[in-house]
């Protein structure tokens, strides 16, 4: 109910009027059934614009920091994330990664749409970085298609470090679903998981024509001075 009210009555109309988001390939989102929506990640606003522009509700696996903030800003962020269907996950690795996988599988098991950023974090410089294999493991385990999505211009509207967005136009391109049924039953094979993940990243790179770098975005962030990020 909160999701519907925010999307169609409160946040949705305002965001559409200000930013005039455009979309190509909306029909590639299946009308029913579970699927993973795999998107590049340029801005925190990606998680606002993408759900706003597709007809079905969807959930993103969001870092738990968004749900633990203090004060009025922390409360507002938490309410917004919960109201728009975002699911908190711990990204510290190990058992936390396994818990995140299980959470995602629960969403897919209900026949819903699950949004994942295969890079694992926002791009620090607009490039497309190496994908994490958790996405592939989830897709093969749940036996669902992966729909590649490229976000465009969201880093100009709300770059890293900016809390108030600039006014500008953003868009998204939704590609045809990727079928990995040939790998079903092989979700424990790390070479298969890497192959599937790389295929998804190639699709994203071709759709968005971002410069690709075969390292993890988190590694690049750790190398950059604090002032640069």
Topology:
Layout: H1 2-19, E1 22-24, E2 35-39, H2 46-53, E3 58-63, H3 71-83, E4 87-89, H4 95-109, E5 113-116, E6 128-129, H5 134-142, E7 146-152, H6 154-157, E8 171-174, H7 190-208, E9 212-213, H8 217-223
Parallel strand pairs: 1-8, 2-5, 2-7, 3-4, 3-5, 6-9
Antiparallel strand pairs: 7-8
Helix pairs in contact: 4-5, 5-7
Provide an overview of this structure:
The protein has eight helices and nine strands. The chain is of the alpha/beta class and 229 residues long. The protein has a seven-stranded mixed beta sheet with strand order 1-8-7-2-5-3-4, sandwiched between helices. Strand 3, helix 3 and strand 4 form a beta-alpha-beta unit. The radius of gyration is 17 Å and the shape is globular. The model has no long low-confidence stretch (mean pLDDT 88).
Oligomer type: single chain
> Remind me, CATH topology?
Glycerol-3-phosphate (1)-acyltransferase
Q: Biggest β-sheet, characterized?
A: 7 strands, mixed
- Provide the succession of SSEs: HEEHEHEHEEHEHEHEH
Shape: globular
Q: Helical stretch count?
A: 8
* Cα-to-Cα separation, first versus last residue: 37 Å
**Fourth-level CATH superfamily:** Glycerol-3-phosphate (1)-acyltransferase
Which CATH top level class fits?
Alpha Beta
Task: Provide the β-strand percentage band.
Answer: 15-25%
User: Roughly how much helix do the residues carry, as a percent range?
Assistant: 40-55%
In angstroms, what is the radius of gyration? Answer: 17 Å
Mean pLDDT: 88
Looking at the overall shape, the CATH architecture is: 3-Layer(aba) Sandwich
Unreliable segments of 5+ consecutive residues: none
How many strands? Answer: 9
Briefly note the structural class of the backbone: alpha/beta
GO cellular component, one term: plasma membrane
Keywords: Acyltransferase, Transferase
Domain Phospholipid/glycerol acyltransferase: 35-154
Protein name: 1-acyl-sn-glycerol-3-phosphate acyltransferase
